[in-house]
Structures are given as C-alpha cells and as structure tokens.
Specification:
The protein is of the alpha+beta class. It has 14 helices and 8 strands.
Length: about 300
C-alpha cells in the first residue's frame, strides 16, 4: 500500500471569507461562490457546506477561467480557526532558525499567538528589539526562513499542535498535507490511524494509539482493535507470511485492555479484505492480504518455471 500513488498534485492554501454561494449541486458535493474580496471559488465543500460570513481555509489551485477570470479551484475546505499558542511555538522552533522555546514564547507574549509569525516576517528588526535573546541577524534569518516556508502555514501550525514531539517529522507532515490538504489536522484528530493506513512515515500502531489516547477517543472502538490485529501481521519481521489466528488474537488482547473483542476485530479485518484466512492441519491461519497476494504470485511464477 504505497502512498506515492495516493498523493495528489501540489496544492496551495488560501484563507477567505465567504460572501455568497451562487450555485450548489443537488447532493451538496460541489459549489461555486464568491469571497468578500470578490475572488471566485469553486470546488468540494465540507459536509456542512460553506456558510456566508464565515472564514474558511481552502486547499487547491488557482485557475484562469475564460468567462469568470481568476478563480480558486479547491479540493478541501475547513472553517478557519485561529492558530493556538502551542502550534505557533512549535512552528517557530521548527521553521525559524535561531528561535527556541524562550524566544518563541516571548514573541507570542509580545504580539499574541495569532500575529507572532506575521510580525516577525513583517519587521524582524522591531521583533529583535522587543524580544530578549533575538539579535537582528537572527531575526532577519528567521524571517527569511519563515517566508520561504509559509506555504500551508496555518495547516502546519494546527498539525504541529497535534503531533509535535510525538515522533512525527517533517516528512509525515508533508504527506498528511499532500493527502488531505487543509483538512489534515481534522482528519488526524478524528482518527490518528488514518496515518497508519496511508503509510505516513513514522505512523506505527503505538504512535497512532498514543494520539488516540491523548485525543480522548473511545478506547473500546472497534476501529482501534482492527488496527491492532492488522499491525501484528504488518510489522512482523520473522519472514513468515501466515501466523496462527490465536497469536493474532492474543496480541489484540495484550494491546487493547478492557472491553476488547479480538475475535470480532479479526473477522471485520477479514471482511474488509485487510487480512486473509486459511485452514491448514486443523488450525486457522491469518496473513496480511498484500503479503499473501505477493506470496501467491511468487508461487505461481515458480510453478510456471517448473
């Protein structure tokens, strides 16, 4: 399940307030509208639709329409929520060289979390005067770096607030944005295991499960138990494709304490096509479908050669 084929073309991020919706499909999956700055938008709104008077973050690309002029063709849209302090501090530490925890917090104190990054980019000299430990040279270098990294700035800030210092690096953040655009923070917050399924770098079961706990998601949800069953077979390094079903079930019991239903989680994984089951010598065996398919192909090729 390589993610390369899933990643869409490079997207851009744009924030704007909706003035009106001029047309929407009957099923609500596509709309055309105008922002208060008179720019045109068209694309796939969130399930709740776009509400005039509210600001949204859109991800997509700019296009030139022969009739309507320049428009933003968006694939994802989420209501714009001002960045919180945790995400801003982590963003400054990561993308502004010379800015550490103390300086980042001072910038937030001086300008407010919502304006700290913009203030440093806009006037690094003034920022260096206002913040102890930030020289003019460091402030200028930080501003240049922030300007270079400002694409999807708001989305990165929100992602960092969720997964910073949890074992996820820049590659993971880039992949999440490539897959889900400005919706990436909401996707991860609703279901951290989406990253594991998409094979986001560093997104193993234990890391995603820690996020699941931190986000306060239901610990007995079947989704979590299915991921535990799949991960046992996905990460096995023994070289064996097939494993006794009892071993997989025991692993689910070990990872999911409390109200766990390992037999049901395995049955769901089989129905979903994630796992395969066979019977040999009176025992039930399980394999990850991808590995089982690869093994079958190799055996078929060997049979053809013989």
């Amino acid at each position: 399940m390589a993610v390369a084929s899933k990643i869409p073309p490079k997207l851009e991020e744009m924030i704007g307030e909706v003035e009106r919706i001029t047309w929407q499909s009957e099923d609500g999956t596509y709309c055309i509208g105008k922002l208060t700055n008179k720019l045109g938008i068209k694309g796939n709104p969130p399930s709740s639709g776009l509400t005039p008077g509210l600001a949204y973050r859109f991800s997509g690309k700019w296009i030139e329409d022969e009739r309507w002029g320049r428009q933003f063709d968006f694939k994802f849209a989420v209501e714009h929520v001002p960045a919180n302090r945790t995400g801003v501090v982590e963003y400054l530490k990561r993308y502004a060289p010379g800015v550490g925890q103390s300086v980042a917090n001072q910038l937030c104190d001086e300008y407010g979390a919502a304006d700290a990054i913009a203030a440093l980019k806009r006037d690094p000299i003034a920022a260096s005067r206002a913040v102890r430990g930030l020289s003019v040279e460091k402030a200028r270098a930080a501003a240049e770096s922030l300007i270079a990294a400002e694409k999807f700035q708001e989305t990165r800030i929100r992602l960092l607030a969720l997964i910073a210092n949890k074992g996820f690096g820049e590659k993971a953040i880039d992949t999440c944005i490539s897959l889900w655009g400005v919706s990436a923070p909401d996707v991860v917050a609703r279901d951290p295991f989406k990253m594991m399924v998409a094979e986001v770098f560093g997104a193993g079961f234990m890391r995603c499960d820690r996020l699941w706990h931190e986000f306060g998601l239901p610990l007995d949800r079947m989704r979590r138990q299915v991921m535990a069953a799949w991960d046992y077979l996905r990460t096995d390094m023994s070289g064996s494709t097939w494993h006794e079903k009892t071993a997989v079930i025991d692993n689910v019991k070990k990872l999911i304490t409390g109200n766990s239903r390992p037999e049901r989680s395995v049955a769901i994984a089989i129905r979903a096509g994630v796992l395969m089951q066979c019977e040999r010598e009176g025992k039930l065996w399980l394999a990850e479908r991808e590995k089982a398919d690869d093994e079958a192909m190799v055996l078929r090729k060997i049979g053809e050669l013989l």
